[in-house]
Structure formats: structure tokens, C-alpha cells
Amino acid sequence: MGTGTGIGRVRGLGSAKQGSHHWWHHRLTAASNLLLITWLVVSLLRLPLYDYRALMLWLSSPWASVPLILATISVFYHLRLGLQVVIEDYQHDFSRVVALILLNFYAIGGAALAIFALLKIAFTGAAA
Amino acid sequence: MARNPARPLSPHLTIWRWGPHMLVSILHRATGVANAIGGGILFVWWLLALSGGEGSYARFIDLMTSDETGRVNLLPGLVLFGLTWTLFQHGCSGIRHLLLDTGAGYELKVNKMGAIATMVVSTALTVLVWGAILMRGH
Question: Cβ contact (<8 Å) for A52 and B40?
């Protein structure tokens, strides 16, 4: 604060002071994505992907479900940050606001669905 | 906000000769969007199909594969193959970006080699993964 005019500050023009936080969390989730997605790709290659029971057994273990929940959070947070930059680069005025709201709905909704499905499998799947 | 869309844009896309670094830069963004939308939806869909029980997972697998051969169907196969490559390309150029963030790799030759390397490695990994899947017989 300090640069810019008073009316500019009232209208919310200028930096929101969240740039470095956004930048750092993008890198942080890039690193966690790298670890968790590498684990996921290797795991999926070792699994019989058509076998419902084998997959349910795998996901009933905390050693599979917890990394997958962490991967879901990391990936959806990362894509939320990344698509925000894309939207801000190409969308202007009102459509930018709409796109950013839709992005938040997609990121939070997608992650919530994935995590709920994972928890349901972890807590109820093993007996089936 | 006062924005005049009639203002001219300085030429930036048209005046440069294309190089690998430019291709990898725009690919990082394009593959990121593809992973975020395509990969994200497929990941959630897969987990929801699994959590819905044996019948719902069977329908998901049935959509993706052919009954006769058990192999992946052509259209889902192309999507899955494409998303495998976009995942690896985004990962490889992501590692490159993390290295560039430290201030390393801006010399012309090193930069060009790094850009080419991301595409070579991502393509090799994609072929390797799908080779392993197809060799397994499913």
C-alpha cells in the first residue's frame, strides 16, 4: 500500500499481495505431485486394473488410500493455481470473474468427490 | 475497469523464429490444461466407478475396453495414451522449470538441450508405459 491513488485502493486495483504465496505453493505442490504421481503410476502399472476386488483390497490399505488422498489434494490445488494463471492471461473483465468462480467450483468439487470415494472404499470396501 | 480493447498489441507471437524452448513453453501450458481438465475428470470418474461397487466398475471397464480382445478400445485408448503423454510432458517440463527457477540452464545450448530432452523423455516414458500395459495382455 502507499503507491497508487486512494480511489484506486477503494476500487481494489493493483496487487492483491498474494503473488509470492501463489508462486511458492505452485512449486510446493509441483514437488509433492512429482512424488505422489510417480508413486501412483508405478503402483497402477503393478496392479491388475480390471480386477475390482484386487483394486478394492489395495485401496483398503492406508498405504494406498492415504497417498491417494494426499495426491488428490496436491493435484487439485496445483491445477487450481495453474488454471488461475491461464484464465488471468486470456480472460478479461466479467468473463474472468465467471471463469475463476467456475474453476474454484471444479477444483473443490472434484477433490471432494475423489476424497469421498476414496474414504468410502477405505472404510467399507474391504468386507465386500 | 477502464480497458480499451482497440489498443494495438505489440507483435510477439509472429516475429520470432520457432525454437524448442518456445514449443516446450507453450506445451507446458497446454499439457497442464489437458491434465487439469481431462486427467482430473478421468481420475474422479475412475474413483467414483470403483466406489459405486462391482457393477459400476464393470461398466467403466466395459466402456474403456473391447469385449472380444480385452484390449483398450480405440477412442478411450487414444485419450488415455494422449493423457499419459501430456502427464509425462508436463512433469518433465515441470522439473525443467524447477531447475530454471534456481537460475540454472539459461545458456542457449543448455536451454535448447533441456527443452528437447523433456520431449524425448516424455515420449519414451509414454511408449514404455503403454508397452508394459500391452505386453501384459490387458
Answer: no
